[in-house]
Amino acid sequence: MKSNFQKLTQGFSLTEGESFQLITAIINKELNPTQTAATLALYLNRPLQLQELSGFRNALIDNCTPVNLCKEAIDVCGTGGDGKDTFNISTISALVLAASGVPVAKHGNYGSTSISGSSDILNYLGYKFVSDEDGINDELYKHNFCFMHAPLFHPALKNVAGQRKELGIRTFFNLLGPIVNPANIAAKFVGVFNLDTARLYNYYLQNSDLRYAIVNTIDGFDEISLTAPFKLFTNEKEQLISPEELGFNTVATADLKSGATISEAAKIFTNVLKNECTKAQKDVVLANSAMAYCCYDTGISIEEAINICKETIESKKAFGLLKQITLN
Description:
Elements: H1 2-9, H2 16-27, H3 33-42, H4 50-62, E1 74-78, H5 89-99, E2 104-108, H6 118-124, H7 133-143, E3 145-149, H8 150-153, H9 155-167, H10 172-176, E4 187-191, H11 195-205, E5 211-217, E6 230-234, E7 238-241, H12 262-273, H13 279-296, H14 302-314, H15 317-326
Parallel strand pairs: 1-4, 2-3, 4-5
Antiparallel strand pairs: 5-6, 6-7
Helix pairs in contact: 2-4, 2-9, 3-9, 5-13, 5-15, 13-14
């Protein structure tokens, strides 16, 4: 490990094998908290290389608790760390998608750079985390939705949670979260915080068997925020799409703010699912859930997907799903 630290401090990248060893050392607690924090800090001002992303990811997957799903599903998530303090767009979109008929196996965690990550908001609303394969599949079978709280399946994420929270800024673990779902998902819809990361993910996922869609709004959001045009990368192509091309108006950043507390964030969350939200909040959820729908079902048009997801919100089917999974 000493030679790896020296390479990093001198500005060199690690090989895939060295990257694998680094995460394995964190998993096995061969690094103390100070060394782990130093490792995270060394990557704050340098881009993650493709071979490092691959090595880190492989180490996490090799040491995770795997889940074999009972049916084909999609993961809907974001890297976080964009500093925009938006409400829980990807988690709401995942529920809308599931209530619209698309099986969702969402991977998530507590927020490290925000008040409410997906685990925070679902736990606050009464959702109970499940940690075994039978329980996960039971949820997916009953509700078309299951949620895997990352630390229950990835020991390394539990080991670095404290350092990430104390740093309070984006680390390379933000990049790993969306690509280390422990389940055998078939598709992935992921939002990233900048274009370099979108390209990195695209290079990496091109070599996988997943159907995927990667989005980054060009003003720095890790989702389709409708505040500006967004980049879309899929298995087939790369596009720049404006809100107007999807039939939406451009919205203001202030329209997407989360609350200052978890209770305020939860109110926004439930109001969207009840169809008691602002037009901007509803539109951004529709844009993300519909684009994820098209990722899962490549035969549907974006217009059709928007209409399906819109009906799901307005009929309160999405809110009904929330009540089912939280027993509220």
